[in-house]
Specification:
By secondary structure, this protein is mainly beta. It has a 6-stranded antiparallel beta sheet with strand order 4-3-6-11-8-9, with no helix packed on it. The chain folds into 6 domains: 159 residues, Jelly Rolls (Sandwich), CATH 2.60.120; 84 residues, Sandwich (Immunoglobulin-like); 92 residues, Immunoglobulin-like; 92 residues, Immunoglobulins (Immunoglobulin-like, Sandwich); 94 residues, Sandwich (Immunoglobulin-like); 66 residues, no CATH class. Helix content is 1%, strand content 43%. It contains 1 helix and 44 strands.
Length: 663
């Protein structure tokens, strides 16, 4: 309670405020003429110096509740301790109204009025506190309650209240429909629904309902709240219209009717479902054409379909570069086109798009295999051809684009221009990786037509270069003599070296070796052991292992150009004389060795010695059971024993001398 004092009664202006139990009181100077305003549901309290509430109140203030015990004293300064009256008045909006109880406890008298009609009447001078509870029905809307308390003599105390009855069997009155409903749709695609608070004292909260246009509100609310607003963060982004209403409900479980519908049209951010059935177009073999079909989507706002293709595998990226239908969606649930025959595997997916530009996830993937019938994108640009001492040299510019399966350029030579029929072609080079090629020795005395074409791993050619005619004159002049030739005898042969020729048309070197026959030098070229033809040397050194120990020989190194032109010993080629070292044993082998039946023996440059039996028994008639291998020692001039071998049942044997000095 707020106990009144003389000082407060005489205050010129007093404002009181409490949090929770709101208490606001404004009074203007002059107790007898005070004007006090108390904000509902705070009571306006008036003190009288009589029990008839007549005349001007001695004091007026605001009281948050009726619960006071003055004992035998005065209730406020300037009032008597007996025969006084206190009146509490409140006017408030009860919303839908309903059943209330008015519990009171008083000593002495108390009367309670609802809109001027007496509901409680305890009106006598007593020495003990009297209690009573009266049930009333408060109509909907705004009503005034007045509590009149009097004390005649003795102790004074009073306690009173008005409380809604919330039992479901008693309270059959629904709350009023919430007022002031409003709905906004924000940039986060959320709907904020607000309303004005209901006035019912037994209000428990609010239930928010949402429905799709054309549907009914369900029995389950979208949300339940004690607040006067709700933000719907679950609103679908599908371009549809949704309606909202809010209903108040009280502690008895009674629910009001719904507010008038408030609608919002959502932004469509919901993509259609991914098309089904695309993967069924897959085939195991090679395909010349792609043919896709799928089950049509059923969305009401469907605009069509996009088809995407990639050769890089799964998943197919949904990019503009991979989209085959451009910016306009396909209206039909099918797609067909020829397949590029590049040897790639082509992967296809389909998406659905709606009229708001939303695109579905990709369908399952269909894949098609192709044969490589397409040449690379590489092209020999600005090709040109000239003849010089090296031959016919073709050059071209590097291709701006290249294919992954590009393996090189092929150079073709034709005997006629492309405008004439019956021409023949010679492939003079293939797999050229750079931007130039020289044909060293095309046949002389004719005009040829060259072309360069890029080729892929499958042998497909790209666009050919321009055709380049060249009148080939050829060359009949041999390269000049080779200089700097040296010939040095070594233990394992004759070591030759010479200066490199700077002849542009040089093809190889040929080594002529001369031996004395009947006092005359006879020359023969060194022979290639594989081809049995004159060996062609491209380095500037060679070790001739075939010279016999102690043999005198004469060498001439001759340069040969691409047309085979070369000097001869009689036209300027230089010669070098050398005598090979004589490393043969200077003593005979052990005499016992001469008695053995070994018929053949030879060795190689890697230290392996092989032999065969010439007979089964030795000179003394005994059977051969094994062999001893000897190696000539030039330092001690004896044959050293290096290995012993048991004969066994074989007829040929070998020994690898791993300790033989190199060179």
């Amino acid at each position: 309670m707020n106990r009144a004092t003389r000082a407060s009664a005489l205050a010129a202006t007093t404002v009181l405020a409490t949090t929770g139990a709101v208490l606001t009181c404004t009074s203007v100077a002059g107790a007898a003429t005070a004007t006090v305003t108390c904000k509902s549901p705070v009571f306006k309290r008036q003190f009288y110096a009589n029990t008839t509430f007549s005349g001007t109140p001695k004091k007026t203030d605001c009281d948050s509740k009726i619960d006071q015990n003055w004992g035998t004293g005065a209730p406020a300064a300037g009032l008597p301790g007996d025969n006084f009256g206190v009146r509490w008045t409140v006017t408030r909006d009860f919303g839908s109204g309903g059943p209330f109880s008015i519990p009171v406890a008083t000593r002495d008298g108390l009367r309670v009025y609802l809109d001027g009609t007496r509901k409680v009447d305890i009106w006598k001078n007593v020495s003990t506190t009297q209690t009573k509870t009266v049930n009333v029905t408060v109509p909907s809307g705004t009503h005034t309650l007045r509590f009149d308390f009097v004390n005649w003599t003795g102790t004074a105390n009073v306690k009173a209240d008005y409380l809604p009855r919330t039992s479901a069997t008693v309270d059959t009155v629904k709350p009023l429909v919430p007022a002031g409903a409003s709905l906004t749709y924000n940039s986060s695609y959320q709907a904020k629904f607000g309303w004005t608070a209901n006035k019912e004292m037994d209000l428990a909260g609010y239930r928010v309902y949402r429905r799709l246009q054309g549907a009914s509100y369900g029995t389950k609310p979208l949300a339940t709240t004690a607040s006067t607003s709700y933000t719907d963060t679950t609103l679908p982004k599908n371009g549809a219209v949704y309606y909202y209403e809010v209903r108040a409900y009280d502690k008895a479980g009674r629910e009001s009717a719904g507010t008038a519908d408030k609608s919002v049209t959502t932004v469509d951010k919901s993509a259609p479902a991914a098309p089904k059935g695309v993967e069924g177009a897959w085939g195991p073999g090679y395909s010349e054409k792609v043919s896709l079909s799928w089950y049509g989507n059923t969305e009401a706002d469907l605009a069509g379909y996009n088809v995407y293709r990639s050769t890089t595998g799964r998943p197919v990226a949904l990019t503009a570069a991979n989209r085959l239908n451009g910016d306009k969606p396909l209206s039909d649930a099918r797609y067909a086109q020829p397949l590029p025959q590049t040897g790639d595997t082509y992967y296809y997916v389909v998406t659905a798009v709606d009229t708001h530009g939303n695109e579905s996830a990709a369908s399952d993937t269909a894949e098609f295999y192709t044969r490589d019938k397409t040449g690379p994108v590489n092209t020999a640009y600005n090709a040109r051809a000239v003849e010089d001492e090296r031959g016919v040299t073709l050059t071209w510019d590097k291709s701006e684009a290249t294919s992954e399966d590009f393996v090189g350029y092929t150079v073709l030579r034709y005997d006629k221009p492309h405008t004439q029929s019956g021409r023949t072609v010679v492939e003079v080079a293939k797999g050229v990786q750079g931007t130039s090629f020289t044909e060293a020795a095309p046949p002389r005395g004719a005009t040829y037509y060259y072309s360069v074409v890029a080729v892929d791993a499958a042998g497909n050619g790209a666009n050919r270069s321009v055709e380049m005619p060249v009148a080939v004159a050829g060359n009949t002049t041999p390269p000049p003599p080779v200089t700097g030739t040296t010939a040095t005898a070594r233990e394992n042969g004759v070591s030759l070296s010479w200066d490199a020729s700077d002849e542009p048309g040089l093809d190889h070197y040929r080594i002529m070796r001369g031996t004395l026959v009947d006092g005359e030098w006879v020359y023969e070229p060194l022979i290639d052991a594989w081809t049995l033809r004159p060996a062609e040397f491209t380095e500037t050194h060679h070790l001739d292992r075939t010279v016999a120990d102690g043999e005198q020989v004469r060498y001439s190194v001759i340069a040969v150009d691409q047309y085979g032109n070369q000097l001869t010993l009689g036209t300027g080629a230089s010669v070098q004389d050398v005598t090979e070292l004589d490393l043969r044993p200077d003593v005979a082998a052990d005499p016992a060795v001469g008695d053995n039946p070994v018929g053949h023996i030879n060795g190689d440059a890697y230290g392996t010695v092989r032999w065969w039996l010439g007979g089964d028994t030795g000179a003394n008639g005994s059977k051969v059971t094994g062999y001893t291998v000897y190696r000539w020692n030039r330092s001690t001039h004896v044959f050293d024993e290096v290995a012993v071998r048991t004969r066994g049942d074989d007829t040929s044997w070998s020994y690898a001398d791993t300790t033989m000095p190199k060179g």
